[in-house]
Structure formats: structure tokens, C-alpha cells
Inverse folding.
């Protein structure tokens, strides 16, 4: 049977291990959140790019229609 000091040392070792696991978990959560925000920003940029491309196509079509109506 372990002595009281051995039991206390084991409890402390387990507490330290739990603390390290919690710190690692927090680090992983922070990294996942950062990646999520990065991907969200990328999606917003891509949506804006599509909107701009559509607006350019509309403007070009309107300009061509205006040119044709002048003739």
C-alpha cells in the first residue's frame, strides 16, 4: 500500500497531467477558431469577388446595349 506522501505525489502528478491536457485542449480550440475565422473571411472575399464579377458583366452588357442603341 502506498504511503501518504506517495499518494499525494501521485495526486499532484495527475493534477499536473490534467492541467497540461486542459492547456493543450485550449490551444487546439484557439487554433480551430482561428482557422474557422480565416475560412469565413475567405468565403466573404470569394462572395464579394463573385458580386463584383457579376456587376462588371452587367455593366459591360449595358454598355454594349447602349452602343448598339446609338447606331
Amino acid at each position: 500500500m502506498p504511503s501518504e506522501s506517495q499518494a499525494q505525489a501521485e495526486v499532484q502528478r495527475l493534477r499536473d497531467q490534467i492541467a497540461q491536457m486542459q492547456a493543450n485542449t485550449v490551444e487546439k480550440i484557439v487554433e480551430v477558431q482561428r482557422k474557422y475565422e480565416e475560412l469565413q473571411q475567405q468565403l466573404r472575399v470569394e462572395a464579394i469577388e463573385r458580386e463584383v464579377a457579376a456587376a462588371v458583366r452587367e455593366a459591360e452588357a449595358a454598355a454594349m446595349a447602349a452602343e448598339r442603341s446609338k447606331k
About this structure: Helices lie at 4-70. The first helix runs from residue 4 to 70.
